[in-house]
Amino acid sequence: MDLLDFDACSTLWMKSWDDWGRFSTSPEYAAALMPDAGNFMDINFGIKVMAGHDLIVFGKGIPEVDAKDGITRA
Known about the structure:
Layout: H1 17-24, H2 27-37
Domain EthD: 2-42
Organism: Pleomassaria siparia CBS 279.74
Pfam families: EthD
């Protein structure tokens, strides 16, 4: 993964790539972003997108590591 060329980034949560596609191409998104975009992004270069998947686990992942997991009562 490349280092970012700037000091900050936005985090957006979507349920699917289709949701991202509808959001990122919507007139409302463009109207909110574009007036100020030149102050913080290189419009000619585009944006970088990193996708991930969160896995939320409750309970002990590795029982021998600790007596409690901090989420559930032991």
